[in-house]
Amino acid sequence: MTDTQTLDEAAVHAYLTENLPGYTGPMEVTKFQGGQSNPTFMLKTPSHSYVLRRKPPGVLLKSAHAVDREFRVQKALHGTDVPVSKMHLLCEDDSVIGSMFYIMDHVAGRNFNEPAMPDLSNGDRGKITSEMNRVLAALHTVDINAVGLTDYGPEGNYFERQVGRWSKQYRASETTKIPAMDQLMDALVGERPEDDGQRTLVHGDYRLDNMIFDANTTDCRAILDWELSTIGHPFADLAAVIMQWQLPAGSEGRGMGGLDRAALGLPSDEDFIAEYCQRRGLKGIDHFGYYLAFTFFRMAAIIQGVLKRALDGNASNPERAMKVGAFVPVFAQHGLDALKRG
User: Locate the Aminoglycoside phosphotransferase domain: which residues (predicted)?
Assistant: First the structure.
């Protein structure tokens, strides 16, 4: 079994001493338990706290675990209206700790695992959700040429290439036949809407638990987990938010299914979409069912990869990976249902 739970602290300390200005030990290391893809560690020193995010060791799917892309996009966004952590170093030398990694500032603040935010007041729930909407619109209005990300994703139809890519990733990590997943992949090819020409930076996994908020206000301080970011179609990010909200409420589903959102001070799907459209000057969104189905499909493909890594012995959190992997057919069916609803 490949060890993703520990870090060669001596090697990291030596590397940072030589390459990171202002770094001084001793260094206390703690592994973050959240996240399944790239093992992430807190590096705490007497004067500063950093985060190390690495590729997992072992044999990996092609193009997965792109920590170099995460580093590049966050570095490019520093100073824009999109809140990100400060990037320090990218180490592409696998010999240092066994795989590529990067170092960024630790951003202190609050993180919400559930979009219903049960511990907050109605007023703060609404403000946090509106801030999430504001940041999403800001992300999709970034001038990719001005920040040096023109070549961060290929030209052409985003959904065409994404469905193709994730279908290949799914097949490469497939462990059993799931009829609903096969049907969904076919439908996403056959029912794809005409490209409307929008081409923006997209996060690829935009959701509340990938955001850090100020400890005392409802301001977002950083968006995390940029591994799936690229140049693509903004409605994929918007649909990803709505996708999560349709899942069961609670710590497992981390959705808002079955909740009385109005009573909790939370917006409906339609209100959130309308607020986003207003921020971006859009009249509305056609074919939203397709975009929603796509996000369910992509998440199903991602968690199938998580399951495969658990079975192969190199998952970041093996126990949770096995639980998450059981939801692949559920996500596939949700995708088919979204397509039927339109």
Answer: 29-252
